[in-house]
Amino acid sequence: MLEKILMLIGLIAVDITMIIGLIIYLFKSKKFSGRYVDVKEAPLYINNTLKDKTKRDIIRVLKKEKKYLTLIAKEIGESVAKTKYHLEELEKIGIIGSMKLTREKFFLLTKKGEWCLKAIYLYYPKNNFEKIINSLKIGKLKWDKKIL
Known about the structure:
Number of strands: 3
Oligomer: single chain
Low-confidence stretches: none
Number of helices: 7
Largest sheet: 3 strands, antiparallel
Structural class: mainly alpha
Mean pLDDT: 81
Radius of gyration: 21 Å
Strand order of the largest sheet: 1-3-2
């Protein structure tokens, strides 16, 4: 009887160790942001844009609401000048749009930007957990030529 209890405790300990190892693996950062990936479904200019970490960070920041320049720069941890340069580049391509409500210019994602956000989630995840969840949520990614 005592042997069975000890064996059961041993099996439970092994299971707990495996679960903890899995959790650590899922939330461990794999430095996905430092690698370059070709998004097969996108045109070349979109591919080149998404390879830049600062531009990806800007697109991620604009996912929920429109924001102004200094707030975007603060959230991504870059200087205002560098952020402004990247915002202008993204606006030229059509990934983001802008509107001037007061003295400050607000930036927001366009439909092309929303597609790029999905591509970022699939191809440039922050960790393994985000990669798995986003691949289940988004599924297959197709470039819609109507977006152009």
